[in-house]
């Protein structure tokens, strides 16, 4: 396994998925529900998200290649999309209404757009397409995706307690800080795309 790529991937995924922020949204969506329902929604959310990220990350580049889209063009467009996501993380407030009793929230909004939204899927493709040995890249990035989703799952299960500890102000500070980090990561992808496409 490529440790450098794993660390790079886990940093990027932690920033864009934001386990604490996602857990607090999960808590607001499942407020008043019993623990069995909360556990089921948390399990389904991370399984669906993991499947989407690993599948799309592995085969997304081949799909774009089949469509005649260069990976460096994807780096630039993906970087712009991530920057757009970062901009909204910094400047806007996420709002979701509480789910109706026993409504399945695992696909929407937990998996898409929160855990495996357009920005995360784009990041997965860019990470899987890093210039390293293919098997090593798949193992490293898949391990990073699983690690981040396990952290997110733990945070969702403990979201009642997280809300009491962090509160709304703490979540706002963390989300905006992570938005700045994501913006820097987005610019790095754009820079690499422009540099490689002109070679």
From TrEMBL:
The membrane topology of this protein is:
Multi-pass membrane protein
Q: Where in the cell is it found?
A: Cell membrane
- Residue ranges annotated as transmembrane are 6-29, 41-60, 66-87, 107-129, 141-161, 173-191
Keyword annotations from UniProtKB, A to Z: Cell membrane, Membrane, Transmembrane, Transmembrane helix
Q: Which InterPro entries match?
A: Multi_antbiot-R_MarC
Pfam families in UniProt: MarC
Which family would the database say this protein is a member of? Belongs to the UPF0056 (MarC) family.
| PANTHER family registered for this protein in UniProt | UPF0056 MEMBRANE PROTEIN YHCE
Recorded hits in NCBIfam families, A to Z, give: NAAT family transporter
Q: What is this protein called?
A: UPF0056 membrane protein
| Species classification | Bacteria, Pseudomonadati, Pseudomonadota, Gammaproteobacteria, Alteromonadales
């Amino acid at each position: 396994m490529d440790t450098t790529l794993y660390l790079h991937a886990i940093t990027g995924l932690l920033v864009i998925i934001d386990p604490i922020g996602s857990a607090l949204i999960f808590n607001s969506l499942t407020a008043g529900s019993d623990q069995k329902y909360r556990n089921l929604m948390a399990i389904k959310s991370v399984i669906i998200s993991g499947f989407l990220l690993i599948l799309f990350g592995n085969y997304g580049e081949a799909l774009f290649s089949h469509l005649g889209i260069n990976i460096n063009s994807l780096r630039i467009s993906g970087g712009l999309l991530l920057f757009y996501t970062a901009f909204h993380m910094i400047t806007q407030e996420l709002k979701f209404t509480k789910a109706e009793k026993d409504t399945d929230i695992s696909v929407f909004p937990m998996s898409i757009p929160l855990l495996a939204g357009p920005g995360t899927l784009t990041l997965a493709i860019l990470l899987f397409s890093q210039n390293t040995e293919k098997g090593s890249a798949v193992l490293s990035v898949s391990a990073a995706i699983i690690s981040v989703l396990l952290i997110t799952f733990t945070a969702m299960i403990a979201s009642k307690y997280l809300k009491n500890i962090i509160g709304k102000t703490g979540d706002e500070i963390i989300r905006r800080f992570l938005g700045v980090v994501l913006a820097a990561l987005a610019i790095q992808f754009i820079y690499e795309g422009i540099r490689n496409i002109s070679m």
